[in-house]
Amino acid sequence: MVSTPRRSPGRIVYAGFATPHHSGGVHVMTQHVRLLRERGHEAWLWLPDPHDRTEWIADDVPMLFGATTPIGADDLLVLPETPTVQGRDPAPGARKVIFNQNHFYTFAAGAPGEDFPGWAPAPALWVVSEESRDVLAAALPGLPVSLVPNPVDGELFAPCASEQLRVSWFPKKRPREASLLKRLLVDDERLSGVDLVELVRTPRAEVAATLGSSAVFVALGHTESFGLPVAEALASGCLVVGYDGGGGHELFEAPGAWRVPDQRPLLLRDQVADLIQHIDALAPVRAANRRWVLDRYPFARTGAALQEAVAAAFARPGTEAVAEHPVAWLDSLGPHFTAYA
User: Fold this and answer.
1) Distance of CA 26 to the CA centre of its chain
2) What's the predicted TM-score (pTM) here?
């Protein structure tokens, strides 16, 4: 006998943002919506303004629009960890979950009170990594925490043949260090003839193509809860060297990932050069990276964990409410929220 997941009693509404360029956090929300719908749930992505609908979100992701939306007594509202403002309940009475994709951002909107976030009823927490689970369970012991691991798309992120040796990285989280690192790599004779690629506001398909043709990926993560680019680089058959950002330490257990002490660009350069010089001998390690990450982060694992988290959330109380989209509190984050060292 094959059991089927029990459908939730009401809708599951994810409050997201229509960012003009690809956002990993919103993309993960769209993956949740798809996984839940595949399992018979009525799931939606809620954006604040239909005029802001962004082209990178696929047309098959069902959406709600508006500054406010009704939430029924049988519904579940899923909110991002930012901006969560102490005492500013976006849907008083409604059943709520904070989908915390970065524990370092938990209190980004200001100092927490003893009863953080001061909502009624209190929300549950969903997290994406073991580190986030452990940190938030310790910081907010009164809120239940469920781990819903990120999936890694092994069909999109896969190795592709390339005659050109390539090293790639995202400079976004560490722009000043990235500019210094680029100069160090360009000037290193050991990397003569190697294609050095910075991925800046690059469409997802182009990111996948670049990673798939890269021999080495340099991880410049900063205050990460997981570090999805590292996972996608591993799936693409890259060797990885760099910073785990804190929450991404579990990814550096991969056979071909080398952790470097924080803010040591010369060590980064030397490790990249050493890997490039031995790249042919490391071909089996690159293949092992892909097997390792896809074995640990398949969509099936995410779907099963999400199903359990949804069931636990629906067991919590909730009443009808009119929800205000969290975009209303973005100003609480301040102008330097996304500025990194």
Assistant:
1) 8
2) 0.93
- Tell me: pLDDT of 4 over 50: no
Please say if the pLDDT value at position 286 is more than 50: yes
The DSSP line for 238-306 is -EEEEE-TBGGGGGGGSTTEEE--TT-HHHHHHHHHHHHHTTTTTHHHHHHHHHHHHHHS-HHHHHHHH
* Strands of 239-243's sheet in order across: 195-198, 166-169, 216-220, 239-243, 257-259
Q: Is 323 helix (H, G, I), strand (E, B) or coil?
A: strand
pLDDT surpassing 50 at residue 292: yes
User: 166-296: which CATH number, 2.60.120.10, 1.20.140.10, 3.40.50.2000, 3.30.930.10?
Assistant: 3.40.50.2000
Of 74, 9, 250, 80, which Cα lies nearest the Cα of 149? Answer: 250
Comparing CA positions, the residue from 106, 30, 20, 83 lying closest to residue 55 is 20
Instruction: State how far the alpha carbon of 71 is from the alpha carbons of 91, 144, 318, in Å.
Output: 8, 22, 9
Residue 155: band (very low, low, confident or very high) from pLDDT cuts 50, 70, 90 = very high
For the domain covering 11-149+299-333, report its CATH number: 3.40.50
How far is residue 9's CA from residue 20's CA, in Å, rounded to a whole number? 34
Q: Would you list the domain boundaries of the chain?
A: 11-149+299-333, 166-296
Identical topology for domains 11-149+299-333 and 166-296? yes
Tell me which amino acid residue 222 is: H
Nearest C-alpha neighbor of 126 from the set 142, 108, 145: 145
